[in-house]
Amino acid sequence: MTLKGKTALVTGSTSGIGLGIALKLAEAGADLVLNGFGDAPAAVAQVAQYGGRVVHHPADMADPQAIAGMIDFALAEFGAVDILINNAGIQHVAAVEDFPVERWDAIIAINLSAVFHTTRLALPGMRERGWGRIINVASVHGLVGSREKAAYVAAKHGVLGLTKVVALETATTAITCNALCPGWVLTPLVQQQIDERSARLGDADAAREGLLAEKQPSLAFVEPAQLGELTLFLCSDAAAQVRGAAWNMDGGWAAQ
Ligand code: NAD
What we know:
Layout: E1 7-10, H1 16-27, E2 31-35, H2 40-48, E3 54-57, H3 64-78, E4 83-86, H4 101-129, E5 132-137, H5 150-169, E6 175-182, H6 188-201, H7 204-215, H8 224-235, E7 246-249
Parallel strand pairs: 1-2, 1-4, 2-3, 4-5, 5-6, 6-7
Helix pairs in contact: 1-2, 1-8, 3-4, 4-5, 6-7
Bound molecules: nicotinamide-adenine-dinucleotide (NAD).
């Protein structure tokens, strides 16, 4: 499959899963708009190794105006957003009665509302051009709950609901909307949870193994590149009738 001539925008693609997906899309020939904080020049250099055009936009996914600026920028640079990957996300772990209100608001804004904003702004262009792929990086936490993750679980369940509605509203077109539901992937977002566990246990290996053993029957992390390959499949013609799916890649987590 080639994505030559297509433009993909991946939110939160300076690290982790977003970067893994951006690399696969670039390898398949797409031009890329990256987004996210941290070392953007390093991410751009990595993705650019495949020879396509790559730009970065620093929009904060908590800010609807900045999101609109990012979509305008992508359209001005490339004339299209053909593939939209909603991936940016944050986590906070606390019991619901101790959950900081400011963290709740930030998680709902970045993990859920941003998906609404990018989608509503990118869809008109996809309809005009008669093709599109919207892939929302939800989580196994869109399907099941876990203690102390109220905002994250609520946001990810919301993303799956939004995915279904967008899939229905585009069902008779060549635009599809689906969600990925990863289990544990070893990224900075999860490393932070391993570090907290490690501080309690005083043993980094035991912290990592315990985190997997609690939830993920395979006892192995999902790789960003594997999520990138699933993304390529969802961008292919073979996936033209995959609509509104919540596709888990979770080492068996949700099978329990
Ligand atoms: P990560 O921390 O490695 O990457 C998050 C990315 O989002 C980074 O590029 C970061 O700069 C960006 N980001 C954070 N806040 C932002 C904001 N306000 N505006 C713009 N960009 C912002 O995390 P990850 O593990 O790669 O997570 C990516 C997505 O995958 C998230 O939606 C997360 O919920 C989801 N997910 C992760 C796992 C896992 O085990 N790591 C499992 C299931 C789902």
